[in-house]
Amino acid sequence: MYEEINDQLIRVRSAMSKKQKWEKQLADYETELIDVEKEISRLEEQLFAEKKDVQKLERIGITNLIQTLFGSKHEKLRQEKQEVIAVQLQLEEAEKTKQEISNSMNELHHKLQSVVDADQDYEFLLSTKEQIIKERDAAFGNRLFELNEREGDIRAYITELNEAIEAGYNVKDALNNAMSSLESAEGWGTFDMFGGGMISSMVKHDHIDKATNHIHQAQTRMRNFQKELLDIDEVTNLQIDISGMLKFADFFFDGLIVDWMVQGRIQDSLQQARDQHASVVSVIRKLEMTLNEKEIELSATQTEKTTLIEQL
Fold this sequence. Notes:
Layout: H1 2-58, H2 62-69, H3 73-113, H4 118-135, H5 138-193, H6 197-235, H7 243-246, H8 250-253, H9 263-310
């Protein structure tokens, strides 16, 4: 009877842990969604203003004629069009982010339905177990209950650590792909500087397009990584903070995208990706060390529980 209820309690404790985790992630996504919606509104206003600037320059007027005569109009128009492209790309990125956040929130709502009764189930099992303990060996029952509670908590935490580590490796893989594309773009860019011609320029930009997609993927995975770390940072003293890493993709979508032809921009972007990669690897190592400690703790708890049962 003890073993059956203990097993049920461990399962329900795991469900409670998931419920708390998913509720916390959902609240974090809700805050993030508000921020990205504000950013979309700001970018839409900015895009409208930038397009008006281009239209003004394209009109025929005295100022435009003077600028054309002195050769400044075409340069100014080129700059304004670049600004339109930059804002348009930022807006598209923000809209993709909003859609991904909405999808993640819908998924969490669905997951929460599966654990909606976890708290009530736990209270019911707890009261049932307390009644059994009163009717039998109270000292043994209480100690076994404590060990099962500890085992359930450790198991739930190990699950969270494994999920966070997996999320971290997913970010690492995306950054590896981005670095590979940027390194290729850097190589072709150097060749282009020494007269590689149109083909080398096209190949360089193809690698840049791939890098941009990988950066977006890394940003999406980084967001998931951050959500997986919400509970872990509270339980341990790891003091993991990846808030700065979440802004990583802003470096790529904040106007730099229109200036890829400048070789220095590619090198800066590559260094940013390498820095983020090193940061992610550092966090993964901390998580793996904590996982090892928790697995040792779980083994010790299980051994103590087995010894207690064998003594009866």
